[in-house]
Amino acid sequence: MRRAHIPAVWGILVPLMTIIANAEPAAAALVNSITVTGSQTGTEEKLSQQGTASVDMAVAAPGLEVAVATELSTDADGDGLGDAGDVVTYSYSVRNTGNVTIGGLAIRVDHDGTGDLPVPIFTQWTEQAGSPDTDSGAVTVTMAPGAEARFQIAYTIEQADLNAAGGGELADDDIDSSAAAVGRYNSSDGPAEFESAQTAAKVPLDIVRSIAVTNLAEPASGASAGQVITYTYTITNDGNVPVTGITIAQDHNGSGDFAAPDPDSAILTDNNIPEDSANDNPDNNQWDVLGPGDVLTLTATYVVTQDDIDNLQ
Predict the structure, then answer these.
(1) Cα angle vertex 178, ends 20, 143, to 5°?
(2) Rounded to an integer, what distance in angstroms lies between the CA atom of residue 280 and that of residue 288?
(3) Scanning 75, 99, 245, 275, which has its CA 20 to 30 A from the CA of 236?
(4) Is 237 a residue whose pLDDT tops 60?
């Protein structure tokens, strides 16, 4: 998966981490000590006694939970599926479920999309719970226990995402991603880093794999012995992703010699994205890549035999 500009996120984290690193480690106990002094009447002898009470602190138990919601904030055809040019909005809700304050918190995202993913930005506190005020934007935040913060990011789906069937190892027609919250806290052993469990999200893509074929003969009727029939084949990619390895299998019931045309000899009409069709191996008896909206045209000829006239009436 592609990662959402992690160096930029960690560059933001450094100042807050430095503050935490310079802080004293959290005490293991709350200690209260009093000293009582006095003297005996008529003497200068001093009396002194100390009393100490210690309360053990709860062990630091950091906890973060991340929820992810996705929405096609721009959906050109309104079908709820991602097309090239549609915009996906990812919304992340992070809750501090532990008992310690988490500083320098940010969202780390792994993303299968082919384009670059910006840094998730802080948008608002859902529950501040004593956390310090934070400006919205590409910043890290400090979260007190019980606080909940929201982050957001937008991604524009690219044609390359459709071509890659969503990308990643799965290539399952979804753009898959996962997100975790990362930050630091003070433990009794000093500063420590904490990362939440990964939370997955997917955006289904509107992928249509389809080709259309026409086969036209000229003349279409009245063929006589010795006449030449010209067949014109058109192969159209009427889907929205490339089709690869196009071959032709011929079934012809004439008694004479007839061979299917070689796709390598096809004439390309590029109707959509320039140069998204290619035939890089012109001797492999197939057309290598036909882009969406593009058309291949081939022709073949056949000379009608007397046997065809005698037996195919």
Answers:
(1) 30
(2) 7
(3) 75
(4) yes
- Are residues 210 and 283 in contact, defined by beta-carbon separation less than 8 angstroms? no
The helix, strand and coil proportions of the chain, stated in percent and rounded to the nearest 5, come to: 10, 45, 45
Q: What residue numbers bound the domain in which 86 lies? A: 2-14+60-204
Closest CA to 16 of 193, 156, 168, 152: 193
Do 257 and 223 reside in the same domain of the chain? yes
* Token pair in block for residue 289: 């890549």
The angle subtended at Cα 222 by Cα 221 and Cα 224, nearest 5°, is: 130
3-state secondary structure 167-180: CCCCCCCEEEEEEE
Are residue 199 and residue 290 in the same domain, yes or no? no
Do residues 186 and 221 share a domain? Answer: no
pLDDT-based confidence at residue 4 (cuts at 50, 70, 90): low
Cα separation, 76 vs 26, whole angstroms? 53
- pLDDT of 18 over the 60 cut: no
Backbone phi and psi for residue 9, each to the nearest 5 degrees, phi listed first: -60, -50
Query: Cα(148)–Cα(71) distance, rounded to whole angstroms?
Result: 20
- Which CATH number fits the domain that encloses residue 118? 2.60.40.10
Q: Are residues 67 and 196 in the same domain?
A: yes
What is the total residue count of the chain? Answer: 313
Name which of 309, 270, 274 is nearest 293 in CA terms.
Answer: 270
Phi, psi torsion values for 91, nearest 5 degrees: -120, 125
Do you find a cis peptide bond into 219, omega within 30 degrees of 0?
Answer: yes
